[in-house]
Each structure stands twice: as C-alpha cells, then as structure tokens.
Amino acid sequence: MKSMEFKRLGKSEVEIPVLGLGTWGIGGFSSRHLGGEEDAVRALRLGIELGMSFIDTAEMYASGHSEEVVAQAVSEARERVFIATKVSAENLSFERVLRSCESSLKRLKSNYVDLYQVHWPNPRVPITDTMKAMEKLVTEGKVRNVGVSNFSVQQTREAQEALSKIGLASNQVEYSLVERSIEGDLLPYCGKEHITVVAYSPVARGNIAHGGRDERWRKLDDIARKYAKTRAQVALNWLIARQPVVAIPKAANLQHVRENAGAVGWNLSREDYDVLSATFS
Ligand code: NAP
Fold it and tell me: What is the pTM of this model?
C-alpha cells in the first residue's frame, strides 16, 4: 500500500486519509441509468489500495445503487475503509433519518457507517429533530460520526448546538482552486471549531485538468512542471494544505485514480502555494 497522509476528523480520535474517493455517478446517475459497476468497483479498489481508504457516497446517488457498488468494492476490506454516506434533505425528520440509515446500511452491507452526513439543509425540518435521530444512531452504534453538507456558517452553528452528546465532525462543501466561496467565512469558522471540511468537486468536475490556456492556467502549468506533477495533483495538494481540509475527488478512470493518489507525499512551497491562491482568487 502506498503511503497516505491523515488528518483528525473533527475533534474525534479518528484519523482519516486527506484524500478520499467520491462516488457521484459511480454505478450510474439515477435508477433509470445504472451501470458500469465492474469498472467502478475496480476504480474504488485501486483507490483503497493506494491509500485513499475513505469513500463518500449518498442515499441519493444512483438512487441508492452507488452504496451497493461501494459495498461490493469494500467486501474484503470493510474494517479498513472509512465510509461516509448522506441522508437526503427530504428525509430529515426524526423517523425518516432512522429509516434512511437502515436502508443505507442494508445497501452498504454493513452494520455501521463511519460518517453520516445531512446532504443539504432543509428549512422545513427543525435541525434539532434531525440531530436527535443522529444521536440515537450513534448511541445504537449504527453511526460513528455525524456531519453535514452544504451548510452555511449559521446552519453549521445550529447543527452544532442541536448535538448534545457528540461534536459535529464535518461539513462537506464545494471547494477547489477555482471555487473559493468558502474562504470568506465557512473555512475560517470550521478551522476555529475543529470541524473537518470535506471538499467536494475538488478538481472542478475535471475542469482543472482540462481547463483553459490563459495566463492563470499557464501559471498552474509552470508550477506543475516544476514539481513534475499534473494540474490535478497540484490542485489537490493545494487544497489539502489547508488545515481542516480533506478532499474527495471522484475518478472512474484508473489512470485518474493513480494520478490523484500522487497528490500526496510532497508539498508545494509556501511561495508557490501563495502564487496559486492569488492567481485563482
Ligand atoms: P470532481 O471529483 O472534482 O471531478 C470528477 C470528474 O473529474 C470526473 O469526470 C473524473 O473523470 C474527472 N477526474 C478526476 N480526477 C481526474 C484527473 N486526475 N484528471 C482528469 N480528470 C479527472 O467532482 P465531483 O464528482 O462533483 O466531486 C467529487 C465527489 O464529491 C462526488 O463524487 C461526490 O462523492 C461528492 N459530491 C458531493 C456533493 C454534495 O452536495 N455533498 C456535491 C457534488 C459532489 P473519471 O470519472 O472519468 O475518472
């Protein structure tokens, strides 16, 4: 197994890889468009072998089929893999959270999930109801850590306050070299509160690798050349250099999986880090 770097999840004792594996589109996009399972399982297994033993999925991905593909991929390695899944915004009432979790566990063929995340906030359901259910699941051993996704600072604070027995472990939000909105308030807030930021779309859905050729991209290419790395590797390394951030690139292509794994084990210099930050701000 290749060496990986780890960060503490929230304030917990758990260490998670700085790079995980996204699964949106893995196993299909909806119940009507399923497929590609064998390739997906191969890609996830390679990712695990390369140290990215943190898989992010959701009950809504491929209408639950993504979780089934994850189960296949980890069938020989469940204990070695940190599995994060998500409950959808329409299922945030107390009863529905419990029901959704049971269904996810069945599809994941596991009796626990490492991180259970609220996929999107839902203003129609009090967050206190959702978090009560989350804490019940933790007490029952079905959920090990609780997180949110796409929550603003205010919503994150409310989620924290709604938890009485455990701390909020993470907030999964979009963050990449080219999507920097969270730097204004959410990223500093999570840093201060020791909430892990799980960066989704970290290679901007492939656009960083295949992006433009203007001055900004030429600077990225120059820096990539200097370190003998690719654009995606530099962009991921830049992301995980921030203290609370881990990233979950999705790659079905084996070459992409290998390439992404090569984003760890080295560091951009402070100067190059700052140049990239300023160039893409
Ligand atoms: P992403 O990881 O930034 O990009 C995935 C796309 O980039 C795929 O088309 C992939 O191609 C390509 N790619 C990956 N590595 C590459 C490389 N080294 N070189 C060139 N292309 C590369 O975007 P994402 O899938 O939107 O985000 C990642 C994960 O975050 C998702 O899969 C999901 O788990 C999670 N997510 C969560 C939310 C949320 O609301 N919480 C929203 C969006 C995403 P191949 O597949 O062909 O390799």
Answer: 0.97
Mean pLDDT across the chain = 95
Q: Per-residue pLDDT for 1 more than 90?
A: no
Cα 54 to its chain centre, rounded Å, is 8
Q: For residue 13, how far is its CA from the centre of ligand 1 (angstroms)?
A: 28
Ligand 1 site, CB within 6 A: 22-24, 56, 119, 149-150, 172, 200-206, 209, 232, 248-253, 256, 259-260
Residues 192-206 pLDDT 10s = 999 999 999 999 999
Cα dihedral: 250, 272, 193, 20 (round 10): 20
pLDDT, one tens digit per residue, over 105-149 is 999 999 999 999 999 999 999 999 999 999 999 999 999 999 999
Atom of ligand 1 nearest to the CA of 232: 18
The answer to whether the CB of 236 falls within 8 A of the CB of 202 is yes
Mean per-residue pLDDT for 193-220?
Answer: 94
Q: How far is it, in rounded angstroms, from Cα 55 to Cα 114?
A: 10
Q: CA nearest 242: which of 206, 268, 279?
A: 268
Which residue has its alpha carbon closest to ligand 1 atom 25?
250
Strand order of the sheet with strand 82-87?
Answer: 54-56, 82-87, 115-118, 146-149, 170-174, 196-200, 245-247
d(CA 171, ligand 1 centre) in Å: 17
